[in-house]
Design goal:
heterodimer; A: mainly beta; 22-stranded antiparallel barrel; 5-stranded mixed β-sheet; 53 strands; B: 447 residues; two-stranded parallel sheet; 10 strands; 46% helix; globular
């Protein structure tokens, strides 16, 4: 995974020495520079056999004292090979040292588990390390997207529940949490991950197997993402870094999804009108909304306007497409700005990191904004001869999201009915126009004459009336004490306090349609004709306040010792307490006046007559809720590794979690989650003679990770029903029987890995195989009624998964011009193995079926269109049939077609980096194979309800013979929902999702001190980045993007430019 | 920081006992438990299959074909009554057992003080009573009739005594089932008050009456007699039917909350609309004819549907449902039967006459018996007439059929086919529903 730093450095050390007469010490001054002349800052220069130490300054210069005339220096610098050299003071000449490029000595990779950091060479488990260069490869506001296409085994999900954006090595759980655990430095982060500024991130470690993750116990099952933030360094001169970029995103294409043309839509409306479809709406006492065309048809029918006039007006509407108006008035190019500054460094006894970041994003949706301010300060003090370390850190995050524009699919008629396609949002000069919303246009228009508020809905004007913001304020305080009891043993205590408040504030002001509509609805006409407004005039303010307080405490012992140069032991043991308390409340103020911050009371109790619906009554909407959640964990853990002669490493880990989410008996039993691993550095063996393959390592691990489900309680839960008839006694009902056995889900994981690297890193990488088995997964099972229940949700389900992760890094050309390639390939196969409820009907995606992946696509077998009628045809008992109801009711997982997984089963990326001198270009191509999706098509339920639908309507069967070139059924004369469900579920709409896309390209140009005379910066990088470049190849025909088959539009192409400078 | 957490760590149990979601209503207080037990739609109901199979009623072919499958199958004593469906006769009593066990488990962690002791005792006694009543009702349908000779080897019903649903159900000996019922009721009798305002809540007399019924079922008539006596010493009110408006749609007073003096404990049948508002379930003609003309029950219990067809209306439930609880009339009849069986003819006839005096119009002429057998015959005849549609007939048939003197064969005719149920037929035990057998693997009844 790791991008190999390949620069060959020449260390030039020009030293001068002066004999100091008073003392016997000699002062030696020298410079450390890289081959291209840039100073190497922060390199360590030690005198062998002494405690003397010097660090090169911003000029790459160092000074050191030595009492001897002959000294041996050890020069080291992170990422480069140490160099020892012996120097004679009397020589008085500059020494040039070339650090040899040893291909097997890759830049040191240190992986972090959140409990410890360890060199990857000693690791037995499956870790992916995303170094700083890769973290910064992408440009963007959030941190998680930086992992995409550079982390083997990790995929961004486009199918399945929206709350599960990332999977590491597939999905093993069924109903429980499927998201990886995200850890920042030491503790899991409970807040919104978007709060984290990528500029503060040094590296990311992804823990994939049991050995890597099991230290996180009951929460490790979905993998762990450990984010390591930037820190200062002891003896490091002050360093100031600045990064700024701007990203411009294209305007979205609202024509991405095909949609019935306005002409087709209108012709259906005419047909429905002639059949009398709109009669009931027309006669409805509540003034049901009718589209302008239907209103025109009614006017023509009633003779209010002439037929020719109506036809002319209708014809004009056929030319209108509301998506043009939306594109023009509701969408724009997005502009994201990012600024980040950090200052870090340290003296011998103190290190610090201070940073500030500001992001401001103007969304593709006009009037939607996001801004984020992040402030960090971290200080570590070392005292008592480096025996005691005290650290304190503070992170403050303020973000502000403005969502004033609901977008194209957010603007609808009443009850979510899509807006008619020929709606007009603005007149020729851009003034807002009203569209039909909840009532017939004429009724809404006449309201003001009746003394009501204006009842018209102008979507464009609503952009100005909206004031919907969500502010997050998050602060985290970290403190730590670390004390070295012995050189090889230290104890540390860590404590984190995290408090985050999300203030949602949606003010729908007095001019907003929402406020006007609600006020009008609850306006009462008194007997004398006067009006009473049961909802006072003014705005409606909805407040949504969610906050959490997280406290984490950890006490840990770290032990590290090398015996007889061959036996290396590394162990930790600790105890952890976590308490996360989340509270929330939602409330609403009526008659709100924002200028004076006053609101007015309303009567929530009485039922009021609704103005628009004579005879109907309703209560004023009451929006006040509270929530109060607590998660608590007590955990004990240990992890130990023993390495013999750098050849063999044996590791083991165990963790016991107790939680208030588990049942009493699960807590009492105390069965720890554990893992064990073995690594063999074959190349360290004396018999190993393969010169072209200097690095070869085998790894094997086995163990268990856990996963937590919060929606089932271990407690008996009940709910009050009310007052019992007859006795008038309050009574309650058991909702959930007690489950003292309720416990975490368990994933058994076997991981086998092979790491290798050829000479000069021409080909390096790793191949891993894993097998996962989900045990005691949460599932619902039919239960013996003698227990008092007939269904029970508990630890009853099982899954298995197998997979392969391959990472290959090659250096195709490695001269002045370089061409490096990274290739990622992941294969996943998972299936449900145990589930006690057999689904009836065609199984939906996410419904567990034994032997199949959880996210799978099933379909009805398709027998083409009936050549006579254009009806869709399926099979019933092997015979072609149009008995849709029976086909639907007799369908099950066995007699339906199983098309395949709904999530990619083979995926990865192919990244090429070309560099020449200071110019570097890196392009990423990603691919996803082995999955299926259902493409959208016409649904006559909506068509025949006058709500339009897919543009497939134009391709429908219309006359015998059409079946030769279309599979879109004919329009039935009346809604037949079974026919529609059959077609929507049929195999003809299931398409292979396989695709290859040109994900992104990055171009950078580096400038270093020394390259330009009097260049004020140490290092400057100018970069450009272009994302979402488009699909190169896909299996499916047509314009639908397999990964965004139901989205309004695909992710827009973005272009970014930025500069990064270090002083 | 250490001080901060030392508080948390000092009490680990409390730390982990915090509710994950405050919105979860975790029943933990005495009043929480009371609301669970006051859920009368669950706690105060009893099975219906026995009533459907009891032979007390008949119907027409047309009515039968249009009704629910389990009424059709029960009516003809089919081997497979449920046709693969779930059965509330099995699941609902076990729901009562679960509720009772949740309350009993919850009470075990509460230490009552002087102010809460009475409520604590009521709850504990009630939970024991409900649990025993559920086991008893289950045993009447899903276990063999109690026979003292074979009760040690006959299979009982699963006895569940904890709220942990993950524990597997097992069928022990029938004797174990009855032992549990008796021990629950005996303990309950010591805890419950002599009177409860709400008839849905068990009282001490109701518990003693139920004990009398249980011992009668077990054919231990001396114990049945002694519990009936203890009950009647505490409570012996009877309704004088002369005070009723017999022409009313529901002539008997509503026991809820407490207007029906005869009702000791309120329970009704698990909702079966067919029997609840009977328009086509006609009372057995011979039974109807056995009521004398001056027997007020004839008019109080039945209403004419024309063509000499009569439907039942005399429920003690106060609503459309069949009453399945415990009432004093039954206790008098239990004791009368026990006296007769013990040879105490005069005591038997005294009890019988005490009851019947409240059932006849005009001057009541006391019945006499020539022998204890004659008394027993008379008591059993009156028992059949008094306790019609009370969910007791099935149990009586199972018990009395063991005695050739009282054995009867039930007959129904449907679609021209005559169906009979011979005394001591295997079909006097219902099959256990399939979903139970599949999930817990307990032994099925032979039917």
């Amino acid at each position: 995974m790791k991008k190999i730093i390949h620069l060959c450095f020449l260390l030039i050390c020009y030293c001068t020495a002066q004999a100091q007469n008073e003392k016997k010490d000699y002062k030696i001054t020298g410079w450390v520079r890289s081959m291209d002349g840039a100073p190497l800052i922060g390199a360590t220069v030690k005198v062998k056999g002494a405690t003397n130490l010097a660090i090169t300054n911003t000029e790459g210069q160092f000074s050191i004292f030595t009492p001897n005339e002959t000294v041996t220096f050890i020069v080291s610098f992170v990422g480069y090979k140490n160099k020892e050299l012996t120097y004679q003071i009397s020589a008085l000449q500059p020494i040039v040292i070339t650090l040899e490029n040893d291909a097997s000595e890759l830049k040191e990779v240190v992986v972090s588990t959140g409990y410890q950091t360890l060199p990857k060479e000693r690791a037995t488990g499956s870790f992916v390390q995303i170094d700083n260069e890769m973290v910064n490869r992408r440009v963007g506001t959030d941190i998680l997207s930086r992992l995409e296409d550079i982390t083997s085994g990790l995929i961004f999900n486009r199918a399945g529940p929206s709350g599960n954006p990332i999977s590491i090595r597939g999905q093993s759980t069924i109903y429980a949490n499927a998201n990886p655990l995200i850890v920042i430095d030491n503790f899991p982060y409970d807040g919104d991950i978007n709060n984290i500024n990528p500029n503060d991130v040094e590296s990311i470690t992804v823990l994939k197997d049991a050995s890597a993750a099991s230290i996180w116990g009951a929460r490790a099952g979905n993998g762990v993402i450990v984010i390591t933030t930037k820190q200062g360094g002891y003896n490091r001169p002050i360093q100031v870094s600045f990064n700024s970029n701007i990203t411009i995103g294209d305007k979205p294409n609202l024509f991405y999804q095909s949609q019935m043309s306005s002409a087709d839509f209108i012709s259906v409306e005419k047909m429905l009108f002639n059949k009398g479809f709109y009669q009931s709406a027309e006669a409805s006492p509540y003034h049901a909304p009718l589209t302008p065309v239907v209103d025109l048809l009614i006017a023509a029918r009633d003779g209010t306007i002439s037929t020719t006039n109506a036809d002319a007006q209708i014809n004009a509407l056929t030319q209108q497409d509301v998506r043009n108006d939306f594109t023009k008035y509701f969408y724009q190019k997005s502009t994201n700005q990012q600024y980040a500054l950090n200052i870090n460094g340290g003296s011998a006894n103190e290190k610090y990191y201070v940073s500030a970041g500001y992001d401001k994003n103007a969304d593709n949706l006009v009037a939607n904004w996001y801004s984020r301010l992040t402030l960090n300060a971290a200080n570590t003090y070392s005292m008592l001869k480096q025996k005691l370390q005290l650290s304190i850190g503070l992170n403050i995050i303020q973000s502000n999201t403005t969502t004033n524009n609901p977008g194209y699919n957010g603007i609808t008629m009443s009850d979510g009915v899509p807006l008619y396609p020929y709606a007009k949002l603005a007149d020729a000069s851009g003034n807002p126009l009203a569209v039909v919303k909840d009532y017939r246009y004429a009724y809404a228009q006449s309201a003001q004459q009746q003394g009501l508020l204006n009842w018209l809905y102008q979507p464009l004007a609503e952009l100005r009336n909206a004031d919907n913001t969500s502010k997050i304020s998050d602060y985290r305080i970290n403190t730590g004490i670390k004390y070295s009891i012995l050189p090889q043993l230290n104890a540390e205590l860590l404590y984190q306090y995290d408090h985050s408040v999300t203030n949602g504030r949606n003010l729908q002001n007095a001019d907003s349609y929402y406020a006007r509509n609600l006020i009008n609805q609850f306006t009462q006409v008194n007997t004398d004709g006067s009006l009473t407004r049961n909802i006072p005039l003014g705005g409606i303010l909805d407040l949504n306040n969610q906050s959490y307080t997280g406290q984490n405490f950890r006490g840990q012992l770290n032990y590290e010792q090398l015996f007889n140069t061959k036996h290396e032991i590394n162990a930790i043991a600790g105890y952890e307490v976590k308490d996360l308390h989340t509270i929330g409340y939602v409330n609403r103020l009526y008659g709100y006046d924002d200028d004076h911050a006053i609101s007015q009371p309303v009567n929530y109790i009485s039922n009021f007559n609704l103005y628009y619906y004579p005879g109907a009554t309703s209560q004023i909407p009451f929006r006040e809720t509270q929530s109060d959640l607590t998660d608590r964990y007590l955990s004990y853990y240990t992890n130990a590794a023993y390495t013999y002669d750098k050849r063999y490493t044996l590791s083991a880990s165990a963790r016991l979690d107790e939680s208030n989410l588990f049942g009493v008996k699960a807590n009492q039993k105390g069965v720890p989650l554990w893992s064990a691993g073995l690594a063999w550095n074959i190349n360290e063996e004396s018999f190993y003679k393969i010169k072209w393959l200097p690095y070869l390592k085998l790894r094997a691990t086995y163990g268990y990770n856990g996963n937590v489900y919060k929606n089932v309680s271990a407690y008996t839960t009940a709910s009050y029903i009310g007052i019992s008839s007859g006795t008038q006694l309050p009574y309650s009902q058991i909702k959930n029987p007690p489950n003292p056995q309720l416990r975490w889900e368990m994933f058994q994981v076997i991981n086998l890995g092979l790491d290798f690297n050829t000479k000069n890193s021409v080909i390096g990488g790793s191949i891993e195989y894993y097998h996962k088995k989900g045990i005691d997964l949460i599932g619902t099972t039919p239960y013996a009624p003698s227990t008092g229940i007939s269904n029970f949700t508990g630890n009853y389900a099982g899954t298995t998964g197998n997979g392969i992760d391959i990472t290959l890094n090659t250096r195709n050309i490695d001269k002045a011009f370089k061409w490096y390639t990274s290739f990622l390939f992941s294969y996943i196969q998972d299936k449900v193995t145990e589930y006690n409820i057999v689904p009836t009907g065609l199984p939906g995606t996410g419904v567990p079926v034994i032997g199949k992946p959880l996210y799978a696509i099933y379909s009805y077998k398709w027998a083409g269109l009936d050549p006579q009628t254009g009806d869709p045809q399926g099979y019933l008992n092997g015979q072609i049939s149009k008995d849709y109801t029976t086909i639907l009711s007799t369908a099950n997982a066995q007699n339906s077609i199983y098309n395949g997984s709904a999530r990619p089963t083979r995926f990865g990326a192919f990244r090429n980096t070309f560099s020449w001198k200071n110019i570097s270009v890196s392009a990423n191509i990603s691919y996803r194979f082995g999955y299926y999706f259902r493409k959208p098509s016409v649904n006559y339920i909506t068509v025949l309800s006058g709500q339009g639908g897919s543009g497939d309507y134009a391709l429908r069967w219309q006359k015998p013979g059409d079946e030769a070139f279309t599979q879109v059924p004919s329009m039935p004369t009346a809604i037949n929902s079974s026919r529609e469900y059959f077609y929507q579920g049929s195999e003809v709409l299931v398409v292979k999702g396989d695709n290859i896309r040109f994900q992104d390209i990055r171009l950078s140009y580096e400038l270093n001190k020394g390259m330009i005379h009097n260049f004020p910066f140490k290092h400057v990088q100018v970069y450009g980045y272009c994302n979402n470049l488009g699909i190169i190849w896909k299996a499916a025909k047509g314009t639908i993007d397999p990964d965004y088959s139901s989205a309004v539009y695909t992710p827009v192409r973005t272009i970014a430019a930025g500069i990064k400078a270090d002083f | 920081m250490i001080i901060l957490f030392s508080g948390l760590l000092s009490c680990k149990k409390d730390f982990l006992n915090k509710k994950p979601d405050n919105a979860l209503l975790v029943p933990s207080t005495l009043s929480d438990f009371q609301t669970l037990l006051d859920n009368r739609l669950i706690m105060n109901v009893a099975p219906f299959l026995n009533l459907l199979s009891s032979g007390d009623w008949f119907t027409t072919d047309a009515a039968l074909t249009s009704t629910t499958y389990y009424i059709q199958t029960s009516y003809i004593w089919a081997k497979d009554i449920y046709q693969g469906n779930t059965v509330s006769d099995w699941s609902v009593p076990y729901q009562q057992v679960l509720y009772s066990n949740i309350v009993l488990d919850g009470l075990s962690s509460i230490k009552p003080d002087s102010t809460t002791q009475a409520q604590y005792n009521l709850l504990k006694g009630s939970a024991l009573f409900y649990r025993a009543f559920a086991f008893y009702n289950l045993a009447q349908e899903f276990a063999a009739p109690y026979n003292p000779a074979t009760s040690g080897t006959d299979l009982g019903v699963p006895i569940r005594l904890t709220s942990d649903v993950t524990i597997k159900s097992e069928r022990g000996a029938l004797q174990k089932t009855y032992d549990q019922i008796i021990s629950d009721l005996t303990e309950a009798a010591n805890l419950l008050p002599t009177q409860t305002y709400y008839k849905t809540r068990p009282s001490k007399p109701a518990t003693l009456a139920l004990l009398a019924r249980v011992y009668q079922t077990m054919q231990q008539y001396d114990k049945a007699q002694s519990y009936a006596t203890s009950c009647l010493q505490l409570y012996n009110k009877l309704i004088d039917y002369n005070t009723l408006t017999l022409t009313a749609a529901k002539p008997l007073p509503n026991p809820l909350p407490n207007a029906n003096d005869e009702v000791l404990y309120y329970a009704q049948i698990i909702t079966v609309s067919y029997l609840g508002s009977p328009t086509t379930a006609y009372i057995d003609t011979t039974l109807y004819k056995s009521y004398k003309t001056n027997d007020l029950r004839k008019a109080a219990f039945f209403s004419s549907k024309g063509n000499n067809l009569y439907v039942f209306k005399g429920t003690y439930s106060g609503n459309a449902a069949v009453f399945t609880g415990v009432a004093t009339d039954e206790v008098y009849l239990i004791r009368a039967e026990c006296y007769a069986r013990q040879g105490n003819t005069s005591a038997a006839m005294t009890d019988l006459n005490t009851l019947l005096a409240k059932r006849y119009s005009g001057t009541y002429i006391a019945l006499t018996a020539s022998s204890s057998d004659d008394a027993l015959n008379q008591v059993l005849t009156e028992r059949r007439k008094e306790l019609v549609y009370r969910n007791l007939r099935w149990t009586d048939l199972r018990r009395l059929n063991q005695d050739t003197r009282f054995a009867v064969t039930l007959t129904h005719i449907a679609q021209g086919i005559t169906y009979t149920l011979q005394p001591n037929d295997k079909r006097y035990v219902f099959a256990i529903p399939d979903n139970e057998i599949l999930s817990s693997g307990i032994q099925q009844n032979e039917r």
